[in-house]
């Protein structure tokens, strides 16, 4: 505790320096003889902006006394306000929070008196001292609770107070062997405080409002989700109740035969006798509650193939599974996946998108232009003309070649070749004859030659530089070069084997 007292003295020393600096600094006193006539409307609006802190300025001091004794002109309170509004003060606190969280994660839970925990305990003293210092100066700056903008009228400040108080109480009861240091993990929640700066950034504020409003609207969709889940659960109970049982001895199908013992061969060729047991799978549909849990597990996409296998293998009640006994039961899971993982997930995504658009429209209500008008103007500003590379001399060979490659019949022919090439690629299968594979290889060479000819014709028509200005032409050229390389490597490999 000696080190802790030294740290407190160090913090108090620097705090006194700041206090003395503010005490001797020339504050602007209130001029009682100043003109008190109201300013024009525009200046009143500027004053209102100043009282709110402006667009990017620091938050002003509340115009109320703090703790009934510290006025707005009190040097001690103004010093605290100066510290709280320093540019890097909040960043330093967040850094200390991160370091404290790392220290909490680095503690040894098995050996409390380990050397590592002893070192971390001194760091904990420092962190708690910093958090206590922050809490006290904010209480002095903002006041406690009675006026608007006071310390305890902010939920984040209440959380800070609980966390710091818990840490101080933990220090007080350390000697009695009571470990309540886990309450310090709540300090990690303080990293959410930068969310208060979102109101200064309109775009981030729109995103935050979108998330909050989406959570409000999710309730209606969640009710529909649960209703559909309940319907599927009832259907699943009717289809699979009492059919997810099995005997540990796979040779026995009925419960009446699942008795006695059976032999199991271990990996080291040892024979071991085990008792036959009639068991139930971990996930089943014997009642609606378990059906809801099983269907929710299936909707997560984790482990559902095993549940599908059990459903397909299910036979009758009080009878063991038979592989592929009812393949038609897979239709139930196909429909379920279409309704829940696909349909409802997209509904939630669409809700967030729609809410975000509504928030954006609310922010634009004060503008004179409507949404469609703004979209038209944005399109006109960002629109760029399409570049068309056409030879100037219409009597040249290059122009005739250009006219040929841009004609609709040429484009349709290329599209037909792409479709046929795709079909040829789909015709490969394992175990094909050599003649069949040779035909496919020759067709691949033919299509590669045709696509290569297309690239050559377009290079002649557009020119080398203009051809490679188009990203799609670059993609076509790379694809053709890759196909040619594949053919050469394949042919060389075949000849080397011969």
TrEMBL record:
An individual GO BP term: calcium ion import across plasma membrane
GO CC annotation: neuronal cell body; synapse; voltage-gated calcium channel complex
Entry annotated with the keyword Transmembrane helix: yes
Gene Ontology molecular function: any one: high voltage-gated calcium channel activity
Reaction it catalyzes: Ca(2+)(in) = Ca(2+)(out)
Membrane-spanning intervals of the chain: 6-24, 86-105, 125-146, 158-175, 218-240, 331-356, 410-427, 439-465, 471-494
Subcellular location, record wording: Cell membrane
Bilayer topology annotation: Multi-pass membrane protein
Pfam families for this protein: Ion_trans
Segments for region (Disordered): 35-65
Keywords, sorted A to Z: Calcium, Calcium channel, Calcium transport, Cell membrane, Disulfide bond, Ion channel, Ion transport, Membrane, Phosphoprotein, Repeat, Transmembrane, Transmembrane helix, Transport, Voltage-gated channel
Start and end residues of each Ion transport domain: 87-361, 408-489
SUPFAM superfamilies referenced in this protein's UniProt entry, alphabetically: Voltage-gated potassium channels (SSF81324)
InterPro entries from the UniProt entry: Ion_trans_dom, VDCC_alpha-1_subunit, Volt_channel_dom_sf
Name assigned to this protein: Ion transport domain-containing protein
Organism: Cyclopterus lumpus (Lumpsucker)
